[in-house]
Amino acid sequence: MGNGVRAAQADFKQQDVEPVISAHLPSEKKKVLNSLMSGALAGAVAKTAVAPLDRTKIMFQVSSKRFSAKEAYRLIYRTYLNEGFWSLWRGNSATMVRVIPYAAIQFCAHEEYKQLLGSYYGFQGKALTPFPRFIAGSLAGTTAAMLTYPLDMVRARMAVTPKEMYSNIVHVFIRISREEGLKTLYRGFTPTILGVIPYAGLSFFTYETLKKLHADHSGKSQPSPPERLLFGACAGLIGQSASYPLDVVRRRMQTAGVMGHTYSSILLTMQEIIREEGLIRGLYKGLSMNWVKGPIAVGISFTTFDLMQILLRKLQHSTNVQR
């Protein structure tokens, strides 16, 4: 009798739980898919918008020329005259190949890390406190950088070389592997990870914090698109300023093979840059351009992601209502 009751209870529990699990799994998969799609579009739109400035910044970072707004304008104009208008987007195809998976993974990972840290710290369904908010962003950036790094290396090479040297993305991979070895595809990996921790951490932290402060003081649950752009711009400005010297170091290490330099470590690279070009002029070269490019790109990226998430949720809700 007792065994029969227990069996009946177990059967009832299984029947009760199974619909919940089956209902939860599709919604969780949809959530992840939504984050991946929104992140991919956000990265593509943002990077394409600032591609000419990004290419110009990389060219200054890897050269010993002194940076100024006038010189940046001259470089852009000279590139346009010599190679044509679309040459300003040279390397953007490689950027898209890298940025689409990078942004998709980063935004999706951020949503998942927020949920995990929320459960761990007991903030499930609520805004995270400052430290977990920073950790979620850092982990998201690190995860994306680790999975897509060789594509970043290829993008940097294409940005600083004439089109005769590398005809396409696959050609870059083949030539680097054959002439410099597969290890070269991960040259500059350490400064990238060290730079992405403060950059992604501070970017996501600033954006999420500003959205929370806005909700607390305005009484509105969601900021408007212009407000999102402004919050994202602030996030980009803070994040990129904090990690910029490491960005210069990684670019030097990534392009060493085609620029006639040999950089063996982060410290030696920094020392050589400082010795040849000075601390500020060397390690912060192109930062003023980044203060224009970075906030625009990050503002567009965060805003596109949020608006896409809202749109996809509305579409799914309307589909469910119709059913």
Automatic annotation (TrEMBL):
Membrane-spanning ranges: none
Lipid bilayer topology: Multi-pass membrane protein
UniProt-listed GO biological process terms: transmembrane transport
An example Gene Ontology CC term for this record: mitochondrial inner membrane
Keyword field contains Iron: no
Keywords, comma-separated and alphabetical: Membrane, Mitochondrion, Mitochondrion inner membrane, Repeat, Transmembrane, Transmembrane helix, Transport
Subcellular location(s) per record: Mitochondrion inner membrane
Solcar repeats: 30-116, 128-213, 223-311
One Pfam family from the record: Mito_carr
Catalytic reactions of this protein: 3'-dephospho-CoA(in) + ADP(out) = 3'-dephospho-CoA(out) + ADP(in); adenosine 3',5'-bisphosphate(in) + ADP(out) = adenosine 3',5'-bisphosphate(out) + ADP(in); ADP(out) + CoA(in) = ADP(in) + CoA(out); dADP(in) + ADP(out) = dADP(out) + ADP(in)
Known role: Mitochondrial carrier mediating the transport of coenzyme A (CoA) in mitochondria in exchange for intramitochondrial (deoxy)adenine nucleotides and adenosine 3',5'-diphosphate.
Similarity comment text for this entry: Belongs to the mitochondrial carrier (TC 2.A.29) family.
Protein name as annotated: Mitochondrial coenzyme A transporter SLC25A42
Lineage, opening ranks: Eukaryota, Metazoa, Chordata, Craniata, Vertebrata
Gene: SLC25A42
